[in-house]
């Protein structure tokens, strides 16, 4: 909640200031883009669990990655970009506020 007050100006969210603060505080540690209350290693573990869940759901839905166009909004560090590429996605566009 403190960060909400720090990075808002009236009703406007100052995203540039927020992300500059996070990256200056944590550098290229996953706490900068992930859960800041967990270690870098714990954030890696969470990404790996998320990957397993994502791939399981895609398998259950019979997603054919090589035939799938992906728009990844909020791609962050590109973790899921690599997961998608490794699973055959060729038509990919990732955008992120940072």
From TrEMBL:
It comes from the Bacteria. InterPro entries: SAM-dependent_MTases_sf. SUPFAM superfamilies: S-adenosyl-L-methionine-dependent methyltransferases. This is Methyltransferase domain-containing protein.
